[in-house]
Structure prediction request, 408 residues.
Amino acid sequence: MPKQKQDAYQEFIKGLWRDNPVFVQVLGMCPMLAVTNSAINALAMGGATFFVLVGSSFLVSLLKSWIPKQVRISTYIIIIATFVTVTDFTLQALVPEIHKELGAFIPLIVANCMILGRQEAFAAKNSVRLAVVDALGMASGFLFALFSLGAVREILGEGALFGVKLFGDNFEPWVIMILPPGGFITLGLLLLFFNWVKERKDQLAGRLAEAEGEPS
Amino acid sequence: MNELVWIFISALLINNFVLAYFLGLCPFLGVSGRLETSFRLGLATIFVLLVTALCSWFLNTYILIHAPYLRLISFIVVIASTVQFIEMVIKKASPALFKALGIFLPLITTNCAILGLAIFATNKGYGFVEGMVYALGAGLGFTLALVLMAGLREETELSDVPRLIRGTAMNLIIAGILSMAFMGFAGLFSGA
Prediction:
């Protein structure tokens, strides 16, 4: 049991940090950039993707022995599209303002290659429990990435977070940050930061290995 | 007529699918390594976009008025089968072209620009002619962005760039600058 628990934990952490779908695998870019002009939109998009990913991973791994191999991709797409339709109508009923703001990008979750990728690479080969844990990790990683991008862009572009002003009246907002170019550039810089962290870690590990090797 | 020109220019430059709407970023970042392949992929995408616009117009007018909640599912099924069908036709008719396009052909299915086009055209209530013009503009805009990006990337490969920023991080920043340049088109029609 303890080993199983650790496995599940590893799967979860993998999605959140080490194999983060956005920063490391660079998947699911389209919704990532289009809706992250404010933190609240980013959270709504992340939440919707979370539900779709976890739901479809669960269903795919549950049905995996019944899905014929030749039409598996189409089957996954239809399962995902079903969950997205449910999400779309739910959001429209519960939070109409946010739904309006996200517009066509909620239906476009279907074309998020990260979701299809998880079904093909993980859910179709693993037990229901592991598939759900993996989906939870990946979805949290995606949510985390969306939120960090949305928060940076809103703070710089409007001088606010969740609509609350952070700076005094003298702050001149960088309007470019909430426009499309800001999205590209912010994500580029965030990726650069991730590369840097990884490089530092590798160097540290290299030095440790060297230090350990010296006495012998 | 004027309306159609406006739709075309708007999809091509002002609301460029890649640089303003962030659609089709996966091929934009993944395939833009070589000028030659990105141009071919652009042409294939234009073709799929046109077929999709035709199919989605048909679905919207004749079928989906009875069952609007099936919109998303039917669109994605139509796109996936269109791509599959085109793949089979090209394979039969011109094996050389099929080989040149390779893996990029099936990957068009997961290009969100295609689904995005179908959804945007529906939301805007475009008719048949408008939808086709919109698809053509969007496809040419996609190809333009892809080719520009590929040219820039071929150039950066030869220059001395810090190792840390090489790859996706730099490509995104280049795309940001391109996008900024395209924002200049925003004022194109406001003066008239």
Summary: Chain A has one domain: 2-213. The helical segments of chain A are 2-18, 29-34, 39-63, 72-94, 96-102, 113-123, 128-158, 180-213. Strands of chain A lie at 160-161, 164-165. Chain A has a mean pLDDT of 81.
